[in-house]
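Take one record.
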Amino acid sequence: MNPVVTPSGTAQDAARVSDFWAKQSEHARAINSNWVNNQIISSNIYRLVSGQDKHWLSWLLEDYLADRKSINNVLSICCGDGAHELQMMQSGKVRFLRGFDISNGAIRTAAQRLRDAGFADDRFQLEVQDANDLQISGTFDLVLSAGAIHHVTNLEGMMTKVGEMLAPDGRFALMEFVGPNRFQWTDEQIELINRLLGALHPGYLQDGVRVQFGRPSIKDMMRIDPSEAVRSRDIVDLVRECFDVEYERSWHGTILHQLFPLLNTDLSNQGRGDFDSIIRLIAEFEDILIRGGLIPSDFVFMVCRPKAGGPRRPRPTRKSWFSPMMWRRRGTPRGR
């Protein structure tokens, strides 16, 4: 999940976020404990997004946007080290890609990744920018956010800017965490995860230890990454206010996102029937609860069009990102 720093943050915060994310994107793709690196979970996510086993970004470009032989201009929000950007360029559909991130190190890695793959510098532009104060102009046929905007404090400003830059027939696609602010997990999540941990043999747990799952402290969240899940709970409502949503699916993670790193992930992707069955059962359990409206989904995929009548500036929302207790969802789960 790629970062931006909050407008109210200090220069020290910005430097810490930049340094943290210079290495984090690549690290996250390599470690066993990252839930989306498990092949069963990733396939499940793809099916929840599109009904297919195909990677969600490939499905978006090749199937959802199948009527477009080429996409002239793409903007990637908080592009990190360029993995999704390389995938888009290699699809053969993207003529020019522009991306930005707050991390200098990530931008350098992303640019080198594209050059190493044979893409000339006139096919892309990558730069260091803060999504809270976006200084980009132009018109884009596709704007993509992959795990980025839950790090943005100035959501209203960023979404207004995206609405202004989106071509009349353009699309804004986001693959996003929309769960509790600052990872202040609900009582229901905490209870479910701890009950599942209590039901498993220690051999299936990290280091064979049965830990007690709980909320991280706000102080620790701010120390590690001041931008993490800063206003994640506001995202869906603001997107719906600023854009016409034409496709929306939840892809869950309400349980698996937090539970998976507490398992013995050395058993992941090893063809172990016992461990794989545990993952499938937890995924099914999570899906049943979410479809039944008992818990919400913490992740969403949305494809949006410009608002009819032109872009709108969203109304200011409550400053819920400052309150550690403003994490409870209201209403039914997001559309699937």
Q: What stands out?
A: Residues 1-8, 318-336 have pLDDT under 50 and may be disordered. The chain is about 35% helix and 15% strand. Strands lie at 71-77, 94-101, 124-128, 140-146, 166-177, 243-250, 299-306. The two ends are 22 Å apart (CA to CA).
